[in-house]
Amino acid sequence: MATPNECEDPAVTNFRRYLRIKTVHPNPDYDGAMEFLKEMAEDVGLPYQIIELSANHPVFIMTLEGEDPSLPSIMLNSHTDVVPVFADKWCVDPFSAEKKENGDIYARGSQDMKCVGIQYIEAIRRLMAKEKMLRTIHLTFMPDEEIGGVLGMKAFVEHEEFKKMNIGFALDEGLANPTEYFTVFYGERSPWWLKIYCTGNPGHGSRFIENTAAEKYAKIINKFLAYREEQEKRLNADKNMTLGDVTTVNLTMVEGGVQPNVVPSDLSVCFDIRITPTANLVEFEEMIKQWCQEVGEGVTYEFLQKYTDQTLTSTDLSDPWWKAFSSTFDKLQLKTKLEIFPAATDSRYLRELGYPALGFSPMNFTPILLHDHNEFLNEKIFLEGIKIYCELIPNIANVK
Ligand code: ZN
Hints:
By secondary structure, the protein is of the alpha/beta class. It has two domains: 10-174 and 345-397, Aminopeptidase (3-Layer(aba) Sandwich); 190-306, Alpha-Beta Plaits. It is 32% helix and 24% strand. It contains ten helices and 17 strands. The protein has helices at residues 10-19, 30-44, 114-128, 153-156, 160-165, 213-237, 281-295, 320-332, 347-352, 379-397, and strands at 48-52, 58-64, 73-79, 98-99, 104-106, 137-142, 167-172, 182-188, 190-199, 203-204, 248-256, 262-263, 266-275, 299-306, 336-341, 357-359, 376-378. It has a six-stranded mixed beta sheet. It has a four-stranded antiparallel beta sheet with strand order 11-13-9-14, covered by helices on one side. The model has no long low-confidence stretch (mean pLDDT 96). Bound molecules: zinc ion (ZN). Zinc ion binds at residues 79, 112-113, 145, 173.
């Protein structure tokens, strides 16, 4: 480690301590995270509570009361869990939070999204020394975001405590941007996980069996892959488009067959489809139905996941939240880019219920390395992010 701890900003030290807690799936150390967050809340001087959604799925909430606690509050959301690592592919131990001489801090979760959790805390610490803000602010730390949030945010929004919080607006995670821009996400694509079943005549592997499952299988796969190619071409043809503006289709699982000399009667294939919010979901399903019909009798589909909410958070200047958000960046002379999030975050459970939510992680000049080997964040970028939140949070919390 190049820089001794004595001359390190305490916010960076807290960030690195948080990164060393192994909240990694499949057995995240949530107890360790709760202990750490308790210590943080006590240190900052914020009341806190832990909501056990179910055994070992805790939500940690720190609250800064506003001047008028009757007004809808602000939710600053982050998740405590991280995705697994392939440690042998990393240049350092992914849970050591090692800092290089140039300030790059390597660790799983450094971008996704322990940085943001600590930045909220450190910004609130600084803001508390100044005047009181109008609205109450809740810092929420969710479990299980990385495994779909079913026992995390999805369960939490049904909880009594969530309802009591009376949320008006939420901030949640975004992505790094390698340029000077900060990316801001106002919506997400709808994940559809689809399983297609093809059935046909079985028989001996030496004959020309008619109406086999395999012929239909090849045709249906080709239809999906042709659509995939068309969407990829659309994306590549337009420089202004990003991944969130098109629909991706990927073949993810195949199943079938009993032995090499038997023609199988059943074959199945899974597709992971992420549908852009501008697509009409009813028409999209009609298209899939039609493909199955065209291929022939005995081709059916089943949804393993079908997300149908397409709510977008307003980015119109007449919207007071967006006005407060965007004017902060104007004032700081920082550039932002609006995008649809290409994957899924906990924000979708909020937007679905009508709560406006923006995805923003203050990481410009940073390669996108979430879920990748050698995930890192530079400490200067991290500290700049705290400064941004010090402007952004009061602007949002003081919306009249
Ligand atoms: Zn994340």
